[in-house]
Design goal:
- The chain is globular, with a radius of gyration of 13 Å.
- Helix 2 crosses helix 3 and helix 2 (about 35-40) packs across helix 4.
- With about 100 residues, the chain is an alpha+beta fold.
- The chain has one domain: Orthogonal Bundle (434 Repressor (Amino-terminal Domain)).
- It has 4 helices and 2 strands.
- Helix content is about 45%, strand content about 15%.
- It has helices at about 15-30, 35-40, 45-55, 60-70, and strands at about 75-80, 85-90.
- It has a two-stranded antiparallel sheet.
- One of its GO terms (cellular component) is cytosol.
- This is HTH cro/C1-type domain-containing protein.
- Keywords: DNA-binding.
């Protein structure tokens, strides 16, 4: 899969849960999916998706896997020394 880095996935000073939430929101908006539909596909509530997108909760990896599956995407979380954590969703079939 190709990792398309069109823009940074982390804003300096941003907490990890905010980075994860922003990545989910951006991907959801890119796919035209509503919070309600994402909640249905990932077996969560719409309120849980909203809390996640606003950085109000720290998702577990199993939860992020369910969200990636709902998007039909691969979730890539990279820990880069000196640069923090970046989060990207890649379309299945792309190359890294």
């Amino acid at each position: 899969m190709t990792l398309e880095r069109t823009k940074p996935r982390r804003i300096p000073g941003e907490r990890l849960e905010e980075t994860l939430g922003r990545a989910v929101r951006e991907r959801r908006e890119k796919t035209g999916m509503t919070q309600t539909r994402l909640a249905e596909l990932s077996d969560l509530t719409q309120a849980a998706i909203s809390r996640l997108e606003h950085g109000k909760s720290m998702p577990t990896f199993p939860l992020m896997e369910r969200i990636a599956r709902a998007f039909g995407s691969t979730l890539i979380v990279a820990v880069e020394p000196g640069h923090g954590v970046t989060v990207t969703f890649a379309d299945n079939g792309d190359t890294v």
